[in-house]
Design a protein that fits this description.
The chain is mainly α and 150 residues long. The protein has helices at 8-19, 25-37, 45-54, 58-70, 74-85, 95-111, 114-124, 131-144.
Length: 150
């Protein structure tokens, strides 16, 4: 799909492919990146958000989060990021989790959202996290705190 010349049918097919779990992540990633670079990306935020809610692939989730963040869709996916930050069976290595936590912290810092910072603080106390996971949450929180220079 050439992002600058994509028709509505091209985009429908691209999203159908992204949402199918039987195609390789690499192929889905190419489509996500093409959509994210498209001049139409801002109008496609609802579809990107829907794909994020439906994915069970850490790689796709990461690319979708980045595409949404890059194109102004971050406020609309905070609930999805919080869901991912709670952990899931499809992200056993916590790759998408790490991106979600970092993105939540960045959003909280940019908006001054104390409730999100509190949620991250609570997450850092989760007994189910490894020491490395807790360190990541604390690092993200430190960058998001007022006066941290971010």
């Amino acid at each position: 799909m050439r992002s600058a010349q994509a028709t509505d049918d091209d985009l429908r097919r691209a999203f159908a492919a992204i949402d199918r779990h039987d195609i390789p992540d690499e192929a889905a990633g190419e489509l996500i990146n093409a959509i994210a670079r498209s001049p139409r990306a801002p109008e496609l935020l609802p579809e990107l958000s829907r794909s994020l809610r439906g994915t069970r692939s850490p790689g796709r989730a990461i690319l979708l989060i980045r595409a949404l963040r890059r194109n102004g869709g971050l406020p609309g996916i905070v609930p999805d990021l919080l869901r991912i930050s709670e952990g899931s069976d499809w992200d056993p290595e916590r790759q998408a989790w790490a991106v979600a936590v970092s993105t939540i912290a960045q959003h909280a810092a940019a908006t001054g959202d104390a409730a999100l910072l509190e949620r991250l603080g609570d997450l850092a106390e989760d007994p189910g996290l490894t020491d490395d996971d807790v360190a990541w949450v604390r690092k993200c929180l430190a960058k998001a705190e007022p006066g941290s220079g971010r």
